[in-house]
Structure formats: C-alpha cells, structure tokens
Specification:
The protein is of the alpha/beta class and about 475 residues long. The protein contains 15 helices and 19 strands. It has helices at about 5, 25-40, 50-65, 135-155, 175-185, 185-190, 240-255, 265-275, 280-290, 295-300, 305-310, 345-360, 385-400, 415-420, 450-465, and strands at about 75, 85-90, 100-105, 120-125, 125-130, 160-165, 190-195, 200-205, 205-215, 220-230, 230-235, 315-320, 330, 330-340, 365-370, 405-410, 425, 430-435, 445-450. The chain has a 6-stranded mixed sheet with strand order 1-2-6-3-7-17, with helices on both faces. A 4-stranded mixed sheet has the order 16-9-8-18. Strand 4 and strand 5 (about 125-130) form a beta hairpin. Helix 4 crosses helix 15 (about 450-465) and helix 8 runs antiparallel to helix 9 (about 280-290). It starts with a helix and ends with a helix.
Amino acid sequence: MTPRKFLAFAVLVCLAVASPIKAQTNDATNQLAHDIFKQLIEINTTDSVGNTTVAAEAMAKRLRDAGYPDGDIFLGGPNPRKGNLVVRLHGTGARKPILMICHLDVVEARREDWSVDPFKFLEKDGYFYGRGTEDIKDGDAILMSAMIRMKREGYKPDRDIILALTADEEGGQSNGVAWLVENHPDLIAADFALNPDAGVFELQDGKRKLVGIEAAEKTYQDFELKVTNRGGHSSLPTSDNAIYQLADGLARLQHFQFPFELNEVTREYFSRSANILGGSIGADMKAIVQNPPDAGAIARLSAMPYYNARFRTTCVATMLQGGHARNALPGFATANVNCRILPGHTADETRSALVEALKDPNISVTPIVSQGAGSEATKPSPLRPDVMGPLEKVSAGLWPGVPVVPQMDPGASDNSILRARGIPAYGIVGVFTDVEDDRSHGKDERIRVASFYSGVDFYYRFLKALSSGE
C-alpha cells in the first residue's frame, strides 16, 4: 500500500480531545486481540520466503474454536503459499452483507536493517514493534477479534458480515482479492466493503486530529516513452540524437498540467478541511469548491504537491536510459513516466494526453504497468448516509470533537479491485497513527499500544452500528 504518511492530511489547527466514553472492550477482548496480533506478526508472510496460507490456517483454527462451523470458513488460493481466508457471520438477511478485507502479506524486512527482530512481536515504550504492525496485521487482528467476539456473544446482525484475509496486496503475482473476485465472487458479494488498509486516522503531537474515510483512490499506470534512430559514431554528431529528442519531449511534459477536477469525495474533503485549517489555505479551499472555482486559489494550492495530487491526474518522469556506448551516438533513449490517474478516467485517456503534451510523433508512448486503470474508469464510492452516519456517530462517541473527513488516496489499495466490480469500498483504518512517524514498509515498524486497543473498541462498535438495524 501507499504509506499512511503519504495520505496524512496536513492539519495545522490543534483540536482538543475530550474524554472518551467508556470502552466496550474488556481485558479478555484486548488479550484476544493481542494474542492474534502477536501470532500474525510472528508468521512470516513476505513474498520471498513467507506463506500467507500458514497465517490463514492459523486464523481459521481460531474461528473454529470460537464456534464457526467449517461450512462458514473458506480457505483457498492459486498455490500452496498464497492462501486466503473468508469467514461469514450469518445475519437475518434483512439487508445485504458487509464485506471486510484486509491483507495478510507484508513487505520484506531484513534483520540487519532493524534494531529488533522484525518477525518477533515486541512491546516497548508504549509501542508494538514488528513487520506488519502498521501495515496491516493490526487490522487483521482487530477484525478477527471482532468476528470472534460477536460469534461468542451470539450476536445476530441484520445482515451477514464477511471477513476476507488475503494474499499479495504488497506485491507478488497472486493478489487475493483479485483471485476471489475471479474464482469465488459469491463468497465476497456484498453491499459495500470496509478496508483498514486505506485512509488515515491522524494523530499529531499526541492529539487526535481527524478520522479519515477513504472513498476514492487514483489508479497507478506507468508508460514507457521511447525514441529510436540510426545512431552512429560520436565523432560525427547528427541532428536526430535520440537523447536530445526525448529530453525535449520530457521538458514539454514537465510544464504540462492535467486539468483541475473535483469529485464527490474530494469536494467534501476540501469543504471540510477548509473549516479545520482556516487562514489563507482554508480560504483557498473554500474558493475552489465554488462554481466556478477561483483560478487564483487553484494556482496557489497547485503549488503544494499534497493538494495538487488531490485534484488532478499527475504524470512524472521517474527513470531515464539512453545509448549503448560512451563513444557512440545513441540509437535509443527511454524514460518511465509514472501516472496517478483520477477516478473516472482511463489509462487510454491519459496516454492520449501524454502524446499531446510531448508534441512529437517520434516519441512512442506505451503502457507497461497498470493497477486497474485500463480502458474502464473506476468511480469514487458514494458517501452513503448508511456508512457515514454510523461512522460519525461512533467516532463522536469515542473521540468527541474529532472530525470525520472523506479522503481520496493518491496511491492504491485493494479497494480499487472491488470498485471496478461495482462494490463500493471504504478505507477506514480504525487506528490513530502518528503522521510524522509513519514506519510502514520501513525499519522498526510500530504502532502505539493505546491506539491498537482503541481500534479494537472502535471496529466492534462500528460493525454493530452498521448491522443492528437501528
């Protein structure tokens, strides 16, 4: 996933945190969540040598011990190392199911890079350490503890609640959500999906700043730009140098800007953020959501990469290669251009815009890596009252005064796979993380102990609010 710090909303106003209401968790619930968390951290699920099947089977055993019958538990995947788990808590069927997704795999971690063993669960100085503590085995443990607790309590929701723990979100060739969509769509068919691996609950200087709900994300697309010509001896320069030709095109691309655009999610994001931030930035945010938007405000916010990425498609050169010898004219030059495409737009549209920006028919533009853009555009998930209402109610009860803010992720998550199949998906992380101490994918990955247990309480309440019929 894209690190949560990349998602962090730059809030400058410090909001006071009122005393939370009494938690609905207890020592037994927290111990269960802790034990699941520890077990998962200590199962290596990296793509190189790890195994998500081991983790999936360990969680299946816990579910059986809690009373789930074998018929409500599915284990499967494309190969023995890339297993996925799906479990269903049956409800009355008054409403369509809720699906929760969370990945079991983690990025690589070398012991020599860490001050502690990345695959040993360690509690120290108010933090849990280990690979996956933030991305995203905390989410796995939180959702598992909620499913087990509800089963043990005999809770009968008004809709089925489905949990899918999956493989290869971080890399590899066997993405679990995609595999389930293609091979067992009936297991995960739902009204909407929740994913703790997107969005951000922001903590800064020990203060809770906002509760984020990711309802949209950009799609990832790389393009190869290439120029070829005859080459030749470097002592006899010619006018058709591949490196110069590509460089000229890249210079034109550097000054090209995709058009400003807001969708339902980003319009709400800027509207709510304006009141939180205030000052000149808040005023500019108010100005860009007007109809028509203020051009000066757009220009000022465009100068800030964080905001610019939230209201336009971006394409940037990230790699460059050319020539084959120091004493030869280059017969080729290539560049990689990485694009993050706004919801509602396709890779084909973006390629056409790049061709226009380069203004050189001799520069070929070829899509080479895609994460869901293709020829079909995915749209943001609607900010549904039946999702937003319970989220705002539970959040206000736990953390009075902390605003709920819709977000668009400039990166990508498994939510894009579900949205492409018509299932609205929402990134709701549940755990407050330090915006200036994001260690996901990095060394000494960690999360606050208190934030983890608060997330256990939050998700239990949230699932009850979404499935009680009240």
